[in-house]
Predict the 3D structure of the following.
Amino acid sequence: MQHPCDIEQVLAGENVEVVRFPLEGRLHEMIVLNSIAVRDSIKDERQVYELLAHALGHYLLHAGNQFTFVRPTDIQ
């Protein structure tokens, strides 16, 4: 599939890894440090690209405005 912007190139340039993960509920993607976790049950490539673009936008435009979990006790 051809995309107007090669998102893989942007992700590589920003050193952001994409990880498929069994997210649940309303959560379809999540930024964790320099990784974007995308729900592994989503198979539609177009939807995955949309989720990556959304998460990457937050990563680039809202730096410091995300939750950061350092220890398991941080999420209590």
Remarks:
- Residues 11 and 56 are 8 Å apart (CA to CA).
- The radius of gyration is 13 Å.
- The first strand starts at residue 17 and ends at 21.
- The chain has one domain: 7-67.
